[in-house]
Amino acid sequence: MKTLQVITLGCSKNTVDTEHLLASIPASGYQFKGEDWNGRVDVLLVNTCGFIGDAKEESIEAVLEAVERKKAGLAGSVVVFGCLSQRYAAELPAEIPEVDQWFGARSLDPLIRYLGGVPGKMTGRTILDPRPYAYLKISEGCDRRCSYCAIPHIRGAHKSVPIEDLVTEAESLSACGVRELIIIAQDTTYYGLDLYGERKLAELLRRLSGVKGIERLRIHYSYPADFPVDVLGQMADNPKICRYMDIPLQHISDKVLASMHRHVDGAWTRELIARMRREVPGVALRTTMIVGHPGEGEAEFEELLDFVREARFERLGAFIYSEEEGTWGAEHLEDSVPDEEKRRRLDALMSLQAGISLEANRARVGKVERVLVDAMVDGTLVCRSEFESPEVDGEILVKSDDASLVGSFVDVLITGADEYDLIAELYDSGK
Predict the structure, then answer these.
(1) 136 pairs with which residues across the strands?
(2) pLDDT tens across 41-82, in order?
(3) CA 106 to CA 159: how far, in whole Å?
(4) For the CA atoms of 236, 238, 242, 247, what is the dihedral angle to 10 degrees?
(5) What are the Cα distances from residue 39, in Å, to 4, 29, 62, 225, 331?
(6) Cα(140)–Cα(156) distance, rounded to whole angstroms?
(7) Cβ contacts of residue 415 below 8 Å, gap of 6+?
(8) Which residues neighbour 139 within 8 Å (Cβ) at sequence distance 6 or greater?
(9) Sequence-ordered alpha helix ranges (H) in 115-229
(10) Which of 85, 98, 120, 415 has the most beta carbons within 10 angstroms of its beta carbon?
């Protein structure tokens, strides 16, 4: 039996691709090794990211490290797939000839055949690192054409996964102990348009909430333009759907939003946020912003800061604008904001958000919340409520040596807070 290891870089969508891949090749022919394995393997796969500069550099370094393992006799062959090899399919084989095979990101079928598998519906998953949550990718590609984004060039056009297939996949994940599904795509709000002629995210949520064993559904990557507001009704009325929305807004200035090709303006954005808070009381909003985009002067940046103060997002991440070849922005806009100024703006924005997050977390002290226990680390239970998503948000930390609680839901009393994490203790309602 051959040994096979996959190193997965980039976003959660890549993680799902890896798990689909492993489930699609014959387990009888391979012994799978985890990412931390340092011994010899017959096949070393690298699933790459090619989104922005830092991610591309990380992927190149990982490929070169894999090549070094091969030279040292620790890998029989090196195979690379994913976004980076899709984006630079013409250049990479010549630049790194030591790699045995290159595959893209738009379809796993060629790689599955190479490994001896038979392509088919991607409803199975092989999870090498079991945890009580899993990502469910409901579509591939993107029909949006944001001026700064290379994803459509890499992943191609939007393509939804049929509802029936997603329900089947959710059932298989539930059977593996998954209790929370995190709904992901390049744009989850676009779901269903290509298959059903209308947006079907709300219907999908309703169907998934009927899967036995799945207790939570969380929505990520929701584009603000043409947002399907029936989703808010599901979120408000369905107890299995987290009152949590990840909605990357990127900016608030009309000038910058137009330059980004976001198809919304500041007034639309403000009304959408107000409607979410009005129709889903207590909702936690996560967003991302881009600073230093072409056309963002000091006035536009100050408008962004004012908006963040006004909206008081519970969660906010930010990126520095990176000019990406092949995008409309790279071809038509001048990257005019100096790097030092981009960094200053990023620091100012994140400093503002740190204070907002701290206030939001402190307001939860003294409350009892239902949490899912993800893991136990050094005598501490690592937990999340409906208001925290894994890997991007903070955690709720509870001192306990009861490892049997991992994977279950428990009530905790919030006793302390910082701008990122919360401290809690197990709550006994009988006291």
Answers:
(1) 183
(2) 999 999 999 877 788 899 999 999 999 999 999 999 999 999
(3) 11
(4) -50
(5) 11, 19, 16, 48, 45
(6) 8
(7) 365, 366, 423, 424, 425
(8) 158, 159, 160, 161, 185, 186, 187, 188, 190, 191
(9) 151-155, 163-175, 193-196, 201-208
(10) 85
Q: Are the C-beta atoms of residues 134 and 125 closer than 8 Å to each other?
A: yes
Q: Give start and end residues of each alpha helix (H) in 72-134.
A: 83-87, 92-95, 109-114
**Chain centroid offset of residue 151 CA:** 14
Among candidate residues 43, 47, 49, the one with its CA nearest the CA of residue 19: 47
pLDDT digits (tens, 9 = 90+) for 242-298: 999 999 999 999 999 999 999 999 999 999 999 999 999 999 999 999 999 999 999
DSSP labels, 369-414: EEEEEEEEETTEEEEE-TT--TTTS--EEEE---GGGTTSEEEEEE
What distances in angstroms separate CA 348 from CA 52, 298, 302, 342, one per listed residue?
Answer: 22, 12, 10, 10
Place of tokens 């709300």: 202
Residues contacting 70, CB < 8 A, separation 6+: 44, 76, 77, 78, 98
Strands 159-160 and 133-137: unpaired
Instruction: Give the N- to C-terminal CA distance of the chain in Å, as an integer.
Output: 56
Q: In this structure, what are the phi and psi dihedrals at residue 417, rounded to the nearest 5 degrees?
A: -155, 145
What does the alpha-carbon distance between residue 391 and residue 63 come to, in Å, rounded to a whole number? 24
